[in-house]
Specification:
heterodimer; A: about 110 residues; mainly beta; six-stranded mixed beta sheet; B: about 120 residues
């Protein structure tokens, strides 16, 4: 199972919106609505930000939203804040009943 | 409050074995899937294995890179998940995180991780 494809880095200014893509295949992202997004700050454990493509866990800011089109999922962060600077990972359940992560995207808030 | 605490990480030689523990509290352990995710130094996240809870409790899945060498298990009476790692390789080095979720596809809570170093 190959890793999902994410851009290595994205950047934006405070207050702006950014979108991170997560490209998979018809055997994972395109097959199920079981895509999750995680935020990881340096030296910290990851944190679940979005699950089941669009759902935000309790306590996660509504500035974070998820979507999917075909084999590609996306995470959008609106109203960028300095604290959003982190690495973001997507993951998907697969046809083989396994999980696969993306390579991670480093978000820089300029 | 949900808490997951990993332990058992150590420095081991290639070919040796290690057992990791994930001690939990603050949730109904038997209802949750338990997952191990690892992160090699300076690299991204890699899914290792999960064991389902709830109606399919005890069924397991493994990443191809560890299948046949690692075994995930759980003791619902103690609220502990385990990862038995045999025939360790240098590329198994990294931080191992334990996670829990209502389904394997979403890791709702994470532990702080335990470091496994495989080196001669």
């Amino acid at each position: 199972q190959s890793a999902l494809t994410q851009p290595a880095s994205v950047s934006g200014s405070p207050g702006q919106s950014i979108t991170i893509s997560c490209a998979g295949t018809t055997s994972d992202v395109g097959l199920y609505n079981y895509v999750s997004w995680y935020q990881q700050h340096p030296g910290k454990a990851p944190k679940l930000m979005i699950h089941d493509v669009t759902n935000r866990p309790s306590g996660v800011s509504n500035r974070f939203s998820g979507s999917k089109s075909g084999n590609t999922a996306s995470l959008t962060i609106s109203g960028l804040q300095a604290e959003d600077e982190a690495t973001y990972y997507c993951s998907s359940y697969t046809r083989s009943s396994t999980l696969v992560f993306g390579g991670g995207t480093n978000l820089t808030v300029l | 409050e949900v808490q997951l605490v990993e332990s058992g990480g150590d420095l081991v030689q290639p070919g040796r074995s290690l057992r990791l523990f994930c001690t939990t509290s603050g949730f109904t352990f038997g209802d949750y899937a338990m997952t191990w995710v690892r992160q090699a130094p300076g690299k991204g996240l890699e899914w290792v294995a999960f064991i389902r809870g709830g109606t399919n409790a005890g069924t397991t899945e493994y990443a191809a890179s560890v299948r046949g060498r690692f075994t995930i298990s759980r003791d619902d009476s103690k609220s502990i998940a385990y990862l038995q790692m045999n025939s360790l390789r240098i590329e198994d080095t990294g931080i191992y995180y334990c996670t829990c979720g209502h389904s394997p596809s979403k890791s709702e809570s994470w532990g702080q991780g335990t470091l496994v170093t495989v080196s001669s």
